[in-house]
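for the recovery benchmark. C-alpha cells below, seq after
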C-alpha cells in the first residue's frame, strides 16, 4: 500500500509538470518546420528522418550587436525562430551588448524566467515585484555574477562600468516574448487614448503626447 507521503509527493510531482511554462516534449526532439502551414501551440515537427545536425546549431553569438541606438544596448536572441531544434524544449538564449551608460530598458518576458551572467563589465540590474508592493529588488553585478529575473516581472539592466559590457542570459521558453514597457504603453499601434495614459500616469495630456511622439 502506498504511504500518504508518497501519494502527496506524486501529486506534487504531477502539479509541477502541469505548471511548467512551456509544455514538456513528448519525443526526443521536434525540430521546428517553419514551412508547415499548420497552426499549433508551438511549431510543427519536421520529419525526424530529415533532421540534420545543423537543425540544432546556431552560429554567430560571438558577434557583437550594434549598440548605436537610443538606449545603447542590443539583444541578439537565439529562440526557436533562429534555432529550430529548440522547438518543444522550453529554453532559449540571448546575448546582450551594452555601450557605456547603455540600458536594456524595463521589459518583461510573458513566458519565461531569465538567468543572466555578466561576461564583461558592470551592470546595475533590478526587477519589481507585482502589486501592491511593487518592491524593487536591485543589485550591482560584476563579471561572473549570475542573477535571476522571475517569470513575468518587469526588469532592466544598465551598464554602469567605464566601458563596454556584455551579458549572456538563458530563458525558460523556446519563445519567451518581450514586452518593452515604454514601447508597448506609449508606442502601441494604434495609440492608447491620451486621456487614459494621462490619468494612469497622473500627468497632463501634453506630456503623454510628447512621450508618444518618441515611440
Ligand atoms: C542590433 O544589432 C544588429 C547587428 O548589428 C543590427 O542589425 C540591429 O539593427 C541592432 N538592433 C538595434 C535595436 O539596434
Ligand atoms: C550601427 O548602427 C548605426 C545606426 O544605425 C549605423 O550608423 C552604423 O553604421 C552601424 N555600425 C555598424 C558597425 O554596423
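predicted aa per position
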Amino acid at each position: 500500500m502506498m504511504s500518504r507521503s508518497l501519494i502527496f509527493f506524486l501529486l506534487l510531482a504531477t502539479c509541477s509538470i502541469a505548471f511548467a511554462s512551456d509544455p514538456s516534449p513528448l519525443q526526443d526532439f521536434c525540430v521546428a518546420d517553419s514551412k508547415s502551414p499548420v497552426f499549433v501551440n508551438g511549431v510543427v515537427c519536421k520529419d525526424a528522418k530529415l533532421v540534420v545536425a545543423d537543425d540544432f546549431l546556431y552560429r554567430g553569438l560571438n558577434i557583437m550587436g550594434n549598440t548605436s541606438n537610443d538606449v545603447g544596448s542590443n539583444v541578439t536572441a537565439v529562440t526557436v525562430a533562429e534555432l529550430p531544434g529548440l522547438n518543444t524544449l522550453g529554453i532559449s538564449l540571448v546575448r546582450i551588448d551594452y555601450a557605456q551608460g547603455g540600458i536594456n530598458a524595463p521589459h518583461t518576458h510573458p513566458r519565461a524566467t531569465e538567468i543572466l551572467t555578466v561576461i564583461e563589465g558592470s551592470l546595475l540590474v533590478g526587477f519589481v515585484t507585482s502589486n501592491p508592493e511593487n518592491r524593487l529588488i536591485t543589485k550591482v553585478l560584476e563579471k561572473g555574477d549570475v542573477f535571476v529575473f522571475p517569470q513575468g516581472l518587469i526588469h532592466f539592466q544598465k551598464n554602469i562600468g567605464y566601458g563596454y559590457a556584455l551579458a549572456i542570459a538563458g530563458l525558460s521558453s523556446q519563445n519567451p516574448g518581450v514586452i518593452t514597457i515604454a514601447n508597448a504603453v506609449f508606442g502601441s499601434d494604434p495609440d492608447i487614448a491620451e486621456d487614459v495614459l494621462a490619468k494612469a500616469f497622473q500627468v497632463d495630456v501634453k506630456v503623454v503626447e510628447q512621450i508618444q511622439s518618441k515611440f
